[in-house]
Amino acid sequence: MTDVSIEPIRRLLIANRGEIARRIIRTAHEMGIATVAVYADGDVGAPFVVEADAAIALNGKTSAETYLDIGKILEACRRSGADAVHPGYGFLSENATFAKAVVEAGLRWVGPSPAAIGQMGDKLAAKRLIQEAEVPTLPAIELTPDADLEAAADEIGYPVLVKAAAGGGGRGMRIVETADQLPAAVEGARREAGAAFGDDTLFLERWLVASRHVEIQILGDKYGNLVHLFERECSIQRRHQKIIEEAPSPAVDEELRRAMGGAAVSAAQRIGYSSAGTVEFLLAGREFFFLEVNTRLQVEHPVTEAITGLDLVREQLRIAQGEALGYGQDDLSFSGHAIEARIYAEDPVRNFLPSPGTVDVWRPAADGLARFDSGVESGSEVSVEFDPMIAKVIAHAPTRREAAARLARALERTSLQGLRHNRDFLVATLREPAFLAGDTTTDFIERIDPARARDLSAEDLADAVTAAVMCAQAIRRASAKVLHGFPSGWRNSVMPPERTTFKVGDGRAAHEVAVSYRSRRDGTFAMTIGEAERTVAAYSAGEGGADLEIDGRRVQFAVAGSGDRWFVHGADYDVELVELPRLPLPEQYEIKGGLTAPMPGNVLATHIAEGDAVAEGQLLLVLEAMKMQHRITAPFDGTVKEVHVAEGQQVDNGALLVLLEESEPSGEEPR
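Above: the chain sequence. Below: its structure as tokens.
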């Protein structure tokens, strides 16, 4: 007998972009559901647009003009004939007004009810509701326009967390340790929250310095059935944004799991929750405190999928179609351990500053060590307009230590080149003894300070240069229009060796590597790199890579060339080499006292004018890029000679912002 209460979804519009859009498309297609993508101008060629069955342009560039525009999304639904909307995470996923508009348009909303979203969307209101369910919470005070900031902070006790009531993903959040930091933190958080969420309401919350961020995955249907799918730990964070997540938590035993899971289900029952969601807690010892309910799919949902065997997007779609869960809490169990690492376009050496640009090479490890959920391919652009996440990499293994090893190796085996990223930092973190011991509190990065970058050894660099040279000469030989059948480098007399020079690194770390090489009659090459000589035999070399024997060592490389740039991936490292021209180019000069943009962005505010005297550390201007705000401060005491930008201006990476003249020493003897 057919269940008439089930309404199959036939065409699903995904109101999102990038990695999560591709993730939803994959499961929808497996379920026989057609998909519709929507896209901003800069995403027209993105993988998620190509992979969807249809795609509708939103005719705009920024988030506000596209993925946050409810009217445009609903019009795309009408034009495409979609009968359901999946919001993914971020953007409008926790916007009750959007969810209500979708339902009122006669479409299925893949998520909890608009009422539940509204109740949990205001984090202060959510705290009050959860307290009624007798779930412990941290003290919090709303920052109304007439609130006494210092009195509120004193009442809670330092350190305090300034937090956006409608926030998420680390945006609109600041830790404040002393009263003098409070006004600037509130101003910055309010501005960031308004830009990211359209709501600048803030509150103060007690901040636990050495705690764990542990969340419970919940899942409910429209018939009142609710379960939890155990916990995830997400304590490895920077800027309050998670970068490594795992399931289960190394700090949670079965007794604590039952207590936290029960509290999460109680909270969900209180609001009549359906679909997938997450109840987040801070865990200190064996005490846990409610943080918030995320009424959507989480970025880190794959680790729960890995240990439970459930596809959470499939469960969301089943529930939206009117299906019952079909299982209870006692039917659920988990197996093994899963860890996820988020690869971001950012520079860990420069305090994780966003680093947008072109992904020249994206080649995920192909040896089955991990699952890759990415929003990019080689040639994709990581734009300043959106979040800088490139991919999520997930490893599952019988034990936590093995999962960490598999994930670290999968990251090392992945080639990602063309922009700065945090891949090597993730590997270092996964191999830290403190991480492997489960010592993973939210202050882990500041306290343990894993290596921010991988130092390339002299031998690794020489090998990479060798691979680039061998591929370059093979490509030139293959494309030669004369003497095509002669071996590379063949001469009928003794001639000088071939010579070339590569530049490695940039900025102050840039240096040159000189190479000379000559082919021998036995088919090998005599090569000199710097002062070191080596013998090289090529089993294969050319487009795509090289299989070489270097002084009796058999090594393989993936190699990609783009003009004078060579991207080499070795056994566990990436390196970009720039082949220098034979004649030097005119040198660029550096403007003394000039402050330049550390990344492309928009000038949100300027706080100085020409002629102003400034002190070291004083705020000069604020840049926004990739949904985050960045303060440009004075590096020394001095005078503003020139201001080259204005509020609202878009600037490129390296653009001159401000010219300062350093103050002369006073000449007075220190007292």
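The radius of gyration is 28 Å.
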